[in-house]
Write a structure and sequence with these properties.
19 helices; TIM Barrel; elongated; Alpha-Beta Plaits; alpha/beta; 552 residues; single chain; binds magnesium ion; 53% helix
Length: 552
Amino acid sequence: MMLMRGEAAGDTATRAAQKDIFTGAVVIAAIIMFVGTGTSALTSTIDIISGVGGGSDRTLTIALILNIALILFGWRRYNDLSTEIEERKAAEERARSLALRDPLTGFHNRRSLIENGADMLAKAARRDKSVAMLLLDLDHFKNVNDMHGHAVGDALLRAVAAEIAKLMPPNSIASRLGGDEFACCFMFDLANREIVDRVADAVVTRLSQPFDADGIFAHISVSLGIAHSAGDCADVDALMRRADIAMYAAKHQGRNRTAWFDTSMELALQQRNDTENGMRSGIPVGEFVPYFEQQIDLTTGRLGGFEMLARWEHPTRGTIQPDQFIAIAEETGMIADLSISVMRQALLEAKGWDPSLIVSVNISPAQLKDPWLAQKIVKLLVETGYPANRLEIEITETSLFENLALAQSIVGSLKNQGIRLALDDFGTGYSSLAHLRALPFDRIKIDKSFVVSILDNPESAAIVNAITRLGDSLGLSVTAEGIENAAIEERLRQLGCHKGQGWHFGKPMSIGQTRMLLAERNLLPSIRAEAQDATRMDTSPMSLPDEFRKQA
Ligand code: C2E
Ligand code: MG
Ligand code: MG
């Protein structure tokens, strides 16, 4: 695009130059004619005016007037040309600056950083020095834009740029790469690495202080990745890529901090990309499957249902746990397909279980931003023929922050269908009573971190006790997660907690293992006959591993 515009400008300039040569030639010819014929023509003209002469050479007079007109025309053209050249120069200067500078902050842009950075790298190599590349990404800048509008966002970016410029050493190159991303580089002595740390720390500290952006006090922070050019980092692109990887590591470590690049980060990124690609191909072919964890009534010991937990049965890596893929599924938008695929398998299976058993399904915060979520779940119930009143949806409090109104509307539609609602991992987030009132929850789940430590940590016991009382007074059922032994189960019973799940009752099981457990307990009416056949063929429920059937 820029090239085409450049070519068009070149053509115009060539045409203008051709016109100028022509004009110049005409003016020079006019002057020569004036010098050659001017004296006699002038005498003849005076004669005509004074009436002395007989007007012997009228032609000569006309030629003189034409000559003067041509000279005047040339003079005017000369003036026009001078103005045009000045304007063209100014436009070229503007275009050059637009091509190399960020118009908002006045910083270099990416192209200019690469050009100037290459010069800096060459200079550093000659002087036996290194170049440090700092890549900065503002944390939660989008919130400022969303809450206060783009004018405030722009003012904040300008203010941030001004602070960065102040903190960089002399002769640094400061650039804005776009959005809320900045990159700065400067030369330093490898033996004196702490100077880079000092600059980076100063930037992180300053940017975590409030900014006055267009009259609004904005609070942000920055994640800053650092790479240096020593070793095999040959060009600016490679240096920026490394700083970018380090910046993502800083974000992952909790934002508002710096991180130096190291090669293990590149490896982790490679692994993450492999996982992401594996997920893209694995979801459609059913590699993601439901596992089921028992949920027990602590007073009667009865099995009340299961929490469905996703597992990735990888063709070469074996069974992979959700902490390895749920976050990636959320970041990449694959969570919706993954969740629906796993739920479909679970509901098709659970349809054949005893009608007293319910299935709880985890819904991630990213899914609760989808206005069509309720419709998708209802469609799934229709497709699988699974009754709505035997499905429970588990959501965490974090789902409610970004858009409580949307969450309320989704949950409202689900509740209207008869689906139950549980608040998962209670006690770990804000545990706000307002959230408990905002949505029609049927159940609170106490996070396993309190339950596993209930015997040794009085604070955990106090929290479990408080949540149980809260559930009682609000009329909500309470389930404790993470019951790892009989002593914890007993303590929970004393505290008045009536439902629970955890490894004490069995680890999450595959579809096949769950089927065996249910057959053993006579909770598989639809395929009871099949289970009896299986007993005769020595695939009896007794072959269920012990860890799944402690309470069987
Ligand atoms: P969660 O919903 O809090 O699930 C309970 C987790 O605690 C499960 O881990 C379960 O295996 C584990 N757990 C159960 N009993 C014990 C115990 O006695 N001790 C200990 N230390 N842990 C126990 P899992 O299966 O690894 O799942 C982890 C998290 O992954 C779940 O936490 C849930 O948030 C998420 N997750 C799992 N499946 C899905 C899914 O299909 N969709 C979504 N969105 N999230 C899922
Ligand atoms: Mg859960
Ligand atoms: Mg939980």
